[in-house]
Amino acid sequence: MYYVAHRLFAAHDRALAALLADRLALKLGEDQVFLPFCDTDEEDLVADLKGQRLFELDRDRLCRIRALIAIVHGPSPDDGVCMEIGYAAALGAPVILLTTDFQDYSTAPHGPHTVFPDPLLDTLATRIICFPRLGTLTEPQGGSRFADFAARNHTQTQHALNACVDAVLQLPTPPPTPPSPSRDADTVFAEPSPYAPPHTRFPGLTPATDSTIRVPTRFDAADPITAARHDWAAALRSTRIIVDASGPETPPGAALLIGAACATGQPAVMYLPRSTYTHASGREPNYRNLMIQYSAVALRTPSEVTTWIRA
């Protein structure tokens, strides 16, 4: 199963993902490609807890994937997509990331650049397909300058989709073998929010008598890619994971780690003192992207964090 992960709340995002899925299906067969929203019949699905049911349907496919192909754009990558990337990477499945973002990212004005805002995304990618520039206009469209500009964007998109399909076809043929997780006893990986001031302590995080607290290093590292690899390995080796999910969306690193924990059965919780609820037709109110909400328990106060750490 080739899983196409994408932001799905607007028509143009769904259309782009559908174009990619269609091209993959032409090469691999329709029954080998899974496209969320489309293949879960999300608009018309009826269930008592529709959000939870959608999570279950998507996770059922994630458990059986051959590879994950994710569309990732902008400084705030979709947290549901990041959860799916973390899930696939923890299972050892190839991850191909597609972006047409013309920006690079760094944690300091003149620091080393990464393709994505969190270097953990760069690290987990088997391949990154990046087409940041407009396509060449071979001939005017005969309309306005706006039509010509649209055509250049269309050309850029077509090149990016074709390159992504080629990358999928070049993946090794044997299916991935899920790695056997090895845990270090009594360890907790605590991922703070990158939106908090540097060196801010995780809310409610106090020394626990019998637990070793591990924290990420990539946000202040001179070599963020190497540090991100270290962070990923340290998180997967930990007994438990706690993330600060504060922000307009769950931060990318937090979502990646939630996905990894969900895939491997690792206990994980998120600190989320406040959130905006989303409402969609037929769906229960969701306080986070449903892929996040149903993967990890939310702790609302620092005292709850302290209690969980000491448990």
Outline:
This protein is of the alpha/beta class.
- Which strand-content bin applies to the residues? 5-15%
Number of helix segments? 9
Distance between the termini: 39 Å
The side-by-side strand order for the widest beta sheet comes to: 2-1-3-4-5
Category from helices, strands and their pairing: alpha/beta
Mean pLDDT reading: 93
Shape by Cα distribution:
globular
- Based on DSSP secondary structure assignment, what is the total number of beta strands? 10
Main beta sheet, described?
5 strands, parallel
Stretches where pLDDT falls below 50 for ≥5 residues?
none
Tell me the quaternary state. Answer: single chain
Helix content: 25-40%
For the CA atoms, what is the radius of gyration? 20 Å
Order of helices and strands: EHEHEHEHEHEEHEHEHEH
Per-chain topology:
Blueprint: E1 2-5, H1 11-28, E2 33-34, H2 50-62, E3 67-71, H3 79-90, E4 95-99, H4 119-124, E5 127-130, H5 145-169, E6 187-191, E7 212-214, H6 224-237, E8 240-244, H7 252-264, E9 268-271, H8 290-293, E10 297-299, H9 302-310
Structural overview:
This protein is an alpha/beta fold and 311 residues long. It has helices spanning 11-28, 50-62, 79-90, 119-124, 145-169, 224-237, 252-264, 290-293, 302-310; strands at 2-5, 33-34, 67-71, 95-99, 127-130, 187-191, 212-214, 240-244, 268-271, 297-299. The strands form 2 sheets. Strands 2-1-3-4-5 form a 5-stranded parallel β-sheet, sandwiched between helices. The chain has a 5-stranded parallel β-sheet with strand order 7-6-8-9-10. The radius of gyration is 20 Å and the shape is globular.
